[in-house]
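pipeline: protein-struct stage 2 | run 1193 | NifB/NifX family molybdenum-iron cluster-binding protein
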Amino acid sequence: MKIAVASLNGQTVCGQPGRCRTFILFDTDGFEVLEREVIEFSENYVLQGFSPDKAHPIDKIDVVIASAIGEGLVNLLQQRDVIAVATSVKNAEEAAQRFLDGDLPIKDAKKKKRNKSPLPAIFSTCLKKYF
């Protein structure tokens, strides 16, 4: 099992893996970490906005861990058969090992922000006033 942890400095877990170019790749046997490698994607391979139809290095990963992750990226990674989780654990190696142990604290994915337009309220007020 291969686990990629989003990290800016090669040590700690960071958020926004869709924009992150640096990941720590942990190669595991499913029970413990065997190897650790820092990988960096080129700007062309940043996950956010990457076409789901094209091959990507993340396709060889089983799990992505970050400190925050949005629903959109979770869905995109699911299409690629990659599990995506957010956690409060700060140390990257600890996060990978705790995922393997089944005791990684998981945070909910962030919901997409919806633009709230004032127009529906205006229409509602007008309808009440004139009808």
